[in-house]
Design goal:
Helicase, Ruva Protein, domain 3, Zinc Finger, Delta Prime, domain 3, two-stranded parallel ribbon, 2 strands, 2% strand
Length: 330
């Protein structure tokens, strides 16, 4: 079964009893990741073999066979292919023998015979026959996620050249630039974050500029964004939100301290029950030096708890140091 990943879950499940009874022997092929595209019961009953792209030498050897083989190849055409042309076809095929053989056949059929009856294929003819390198990239397959992961990790590691390399690899494979900008926007908050709070605005501006200009000028904005993020100071302190989510899911949300509640509701409650207005205990920060006052904002049971861990790079460090000094004021 070729392209077995195209079978839906029900069709794959229908194979199981026949595999177990030995009625059928299944040989399936897929270009997708089988761990995503095939159901686990089917995988558990099969032996998995991963096939890798052919190496340059292997592709060249197959091209030489095709040139020489009279019965199954193109030997009957009396081809004369230069060494440089063979190397070029093998290299540009990107490990895909079918791509290389198709290019060789195009060259052979589109080149007139010389007076001696032979067909001569040089480097120029080879370049005309396979004008673009075969790229191992599928926007919906594994390579899409592998390349995207490599791009993100390169920017996180502040490697500008690697960031641009994987960016270009994805674009050359036909990736949607809008997907890349979405990843850049996420990175600006997840990995640059408060170290440079303006990174988000820079990426948003680059995306808007891209939408207004399109390609090929859009390459500038993609490059601008990738270089900027790779060079930016890094902080992942925004991940504190997930620690808070875990806290709330595990323990629930505690009561809002009375002085933090809505002042209108507090006033009505105080008037109705004949007691002091809890909002009177709220201390308005703008009435104090540096617009800060020591006051509890968390529920009583969470007093003193901290989830935010400030980074030590870029603007975040200076913002946190400013707040620390204000808190230390008598």
């Amino acid at each position: 079964v070729d392209e077995i990943h195209r079978w839906n879950k029900a069709q794959q499940d229908a194979l199981l009893p026949h595999l177990e009874s030995g009625v059928i022997t299944l040989v399936g092929a897929t270009t997708e990741n089988p761990f995503y595209s095939l159901v686990n019961p089917l995988l558990s009953r099969c032996q998995l073999f991963e096939l890798y792209p052919l190496q340059h030498e292997d592709v060249r050897r197959m091209l030489e066979r095709a040139v020489a083989d009279v019965d199954r190849g193109l030997g009957f055409m009396e081809l004369r292919v230069t060494e440089v042309a063979l190397d070029y076809l093998a290299e540009m095929a990107g490990g895909d023998i079918r791509n290389a053989l198709n290019a060789l056949e195009v060259a052979a059929l589109s080149t007139p015979r010389k007076a001696d009856g032979a067909v001569y294929i040089d480097l120029e003819i080879a370049k005309e026959s396979i004008q673009k390198r075969n790229v191992r990239y599928d926007r919906g397959g594994d390579e899409h996620y592998h390349y995207a992961s490599a791009l993100i990790k390169s920017m996180r590691g502040s490697d500008v050249d690697a960031s641009l390399y994987w960016l270009c690899a994805m674009l050359d494979g036909g990736e949607d630039p809008n997907f890349l900008f979405r990843r850049f926007l996420i990175f600006a908050s997840e990995d640059v974050g408060m170290a440079d709070p303006y990174a988000l605005g820079v990426i948003q501006a680059a995306h808007e500029a891209f939408l207004k200009t399109g390609m090929p000028e859009g390459f500038y904005f993609l490059s601008h964004a990738a270089i900027f993020l790779a060079l930016s100071p890094k902080s992942n302190s925004t991940k504190a939100i997930f620690d808070l989510q875990r806290e709330i899911r595990e323990h629930g949300v505690m009561e809002v301290p009375p002085w933090l509640r809505d002042k209108t509701a507090n006033a009505k409650e105080a008037r109705y029950l004949g007691r002091e207005n809890a909002s009177d205990d709220y201390r308005y920060p703008h009435n104090y030096p540096f617009h800060w006052v020591d006051q509890r904002y968390l529920p009583e049971s969470l007093k003193g708890r901290e989830w935010f861990e400030p980074g030590t790079q870029g603007r975040e460090a200076s913002l946190w140091e400013r707040l620390r000094k204000i808190r230390e004021q008598p």
